[in-house]
């Protein structure tokens, strides 16, 4: 007989003994809890583009190209297209341009598009190509998501007993992840079904549950060190992210944002003075990480873009208007964020935009 998640295991989940909880998003029932998941980290599916007739502007891009690379078509009737976490694979044999990969924007280029495209990384123009083509990726088998030593819930027990295709289709599920202290860290969504189930510790009634991984987006491998830090617990001092490069700062910001919606913070009273350590604001994620810690302490969140910052200034994210922000070493942010590009490639001053947004939200900013 397969045991189910009972009061004892629910209590373990609340106190961090079970790091992972698989739940049904429709009804909220618990499919099961476990302490180990294989397949959580991996390489998400990426779009691949070959750039024909490439003419670089400045230094050639090699390796990681940026968190957000925009492809701006010469045809002004078409909007720009986004590649997130873009990488340059260099020039392939027999081609006259580099190959670029990245996570595709939900609205990519029109099918069969031909025409000149100019690329930028929000800070500088990278180059121009006379046209580009999407390269079809090779067929690959997505690895399963395996929940090791799982204690199944009652609903999962019934599904496994039935064993039919319909019963084993879990549809949309959520993998809730807790840190070592048992506090909620993230909630990852997946559309999945049970592919296999094997006893892992028969005497304890535990199972290894293998889920179809085709519709699960794994956490990128480059983010693994960041996640491992957070799984051990939140930072105790501010600036734990300061030594990271921009790519991993983005990963840190992703975790901060995900955790913030699991753990709301009480608002400070009106008139509070916040201190912002600006020494490490050398890029966009650094800006938002520093702002988050100024308002909500180590590992705190206070927006991940201008629109989100504006939302946070309206309350429920640690701040009550009016307030004062003492921005120390503001010259660092001014130096690195004053010359940026919009998605369309128009120059704008992000540093000034941030000041305007803060002021509009009732935050007086004193630059030091």
Short description:
This protein is of the alpha+beta class. It has helices spanning 7-14, 154-162, 165-168, 224-231, 246-260, 284-296, 306-312, 330-337, 350-360, and strands spanning 20-24, 30-34, 36-38, 41-42, 47-52, 55-56, 63-73, 81-91, 98-104, 117-120, 125-129, 131-134, 145-152, 169-178, 184-201, 206-211, 219-220, 273-277, 323-328, 340-341, 347-348, 363-367. The model is unreliable at 1-16 (pLDDT under 50).
Question: Mind telling me the CATH class of the largest domain?
Answer: Alpha Beta
Q: Give a short account of the largest sheet.
A: 8 strands, antiparallel
Tell me the number of helical segments per DSSP (H or I, 4 or more residues long): 9
List the uncertain runs.
1-16
Number of domains: 3
Strand order of the largest sheet: 6-11-10-7-8-9-5-12
Q: What's the average pLDDT? A: 91
Secondary structure: helix percent: 10-25%
Rg on CA atoms, Å = 23 Å
The CATH superfamily name of the largest domain is Barstar-like
Number of strands: 22
Question: Roughly how many Å apart are the termini?
Answer: 67 Å
Q: Could you say what the CATH architecture of the largest domain is? A: 2-Layer Sandwich
Remind me, CATH topology of the largest domain? Barnase, Chain D
* Apparent shape: flat
Strand-pairing-aware structural class? alpha+beta
- Residue share in β-strands: 35-45%
């Amino acid at each position: 007989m397969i045991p189910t998640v009972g009061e004892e295991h629910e209590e373990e989940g609340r106190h961090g003994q079970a790091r992972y909880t698989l739940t049904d998003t429709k009804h909220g029932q618990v499919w099961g809890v476990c302490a180990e998941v294989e397949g959580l980290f991996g390489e998400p599916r990426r779009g691949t583009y070959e750039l024909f007739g490439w003419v670089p502007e400045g230094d050639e891009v090699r390796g990681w190209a940026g968190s957000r690379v925009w492809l701006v078509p010469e045809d002004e009737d078409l909007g720009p297209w986004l590649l997130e976490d873009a990488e340059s694979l260099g020039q392939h044999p027999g081609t006259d341009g580099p190959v670029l990969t990245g996570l595709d924007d939900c609205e990519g280029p029109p099918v069969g598009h031909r025409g000149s495209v100019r690329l930028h990384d929000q800070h500088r123009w990278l180059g121009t190509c006379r046209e580009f083509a999407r390269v079809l990726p090779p067929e690959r088998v997505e690895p399963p998501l395996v929940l090791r030593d799982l204690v199944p819930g009652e609903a999962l027990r019934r599904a496994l007993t039935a064993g039919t295709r319909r019963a084993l289709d879990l549809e949309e599920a959520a993998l809730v992840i807790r840190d070592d202290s048992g506090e909620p860290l993230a909630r990852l969504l997946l559309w999945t079904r049970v592919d296999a189930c094997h006893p892992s510790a028969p005497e304890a009634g535990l199972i290894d549950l293998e889920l179809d991984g085709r519709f699960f987006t794994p956490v990128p491998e480059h983010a693994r060190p960041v996640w491992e830090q957070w799984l051990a617990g939140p930072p105790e001092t501010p600036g734990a992210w300061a030594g990271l490069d921009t790519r991993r700062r983005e990963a840190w910001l992703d975790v901060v944002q995900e955790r913030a919606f699991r753990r709301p913070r009480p608002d400070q009273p009106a008139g509070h003075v916040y201190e912002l350590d600006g020494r490490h604001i050398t890029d966009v994620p650094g800006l938002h990480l520093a702002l988050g810690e100024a308002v909500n302490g180590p590992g705190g969140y206070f927006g991940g873009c201008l629109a989100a910052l504006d939302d946070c200034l309206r309350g429920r994210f640690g701040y009550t208007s009016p307030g004062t922000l003492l921005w120390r070493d503001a010259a660092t942010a001014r130096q690195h964020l004053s010359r940026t590009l919009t998605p369309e490639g128009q120059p704008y001053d992000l540093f000034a935009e941030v000041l305007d947004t803060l002021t509009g939200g009732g935050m007086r900013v004193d630059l030091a």
